[in-house]
Amino acid sequence: MLTNIYHHRIEVVTGDIDVQGHVNNLVYLKWMQDAAVAHSLEKGWGHDEYGKLGCSWVVRAHQIEYRFPAFENDQLEVVTWVDSFRRASCVRKYEILRKSDDKILAIAQTNWAFVDLEKRMPARVPQEVIEAFKSDPMAQTS
After folding, report:
1. Whole-angstrom Cα distance, residue 105 to residue 114?
2. Interval 49-97: pLDDT, tens
3. CA distances (Å), 54 to each of 49, 57, 62, 122, 123, in order?
4. Which of 36, 70, 84, 129 has the fewest CB atoms inside 10 Å of its own CB, making it the most exposed?
5. What residues form DSSP beta bridges with 59?
6. For 15, which DSSP code?
7. DSSP 46
C-alpha cells in the first residue's frame, strides 16, 4: 500500500466552468500541476531547493481519463503520489474525487522529466529527491 500520498483540496469556481456547464478539461491539468507542486513543497522540495541543484521538473506527457463531470461549487480532492522513478524521470499518478459522493471524476498520470536547466538536458534524479517521495511499505496507515 502506498503511504506517501498527498491530498489537495479544491473548490470548483465559476472560472473553471466551460460552455457546457462543467469543469473545462484544461482546468484538470492545472489542478494536477498545483497538487504536484504542493506535494513537492510538503516534502521539502520547492522551487528554491530545485534551483540549488540547477534542475527542475518538466512535463513530458499527461494521460487523463475523464469519468464524470465536476460542477461549480463542488468540493474536490486531488489525490496524488509518485508511482515510480527512473534515472531522469518519474511517473506521478492522480485521482480527482468529488467529496460529496466520493466519485472518482478522473484518473491521470504525468511523466515528469528531471532537467538540468543550464544544459537543457535530462539529469539524474538525486537520491535525496527519490527518498523524499518514496512510499514506506512497512508504514501502517489508518
Report:
1. 29
2. 999 999 999 999 999 999 999 999 999 999 999 999 999 999 999 999 9
3. 9, 11, 24, 12, 10
4. 84
5. 112
6. G
7. -
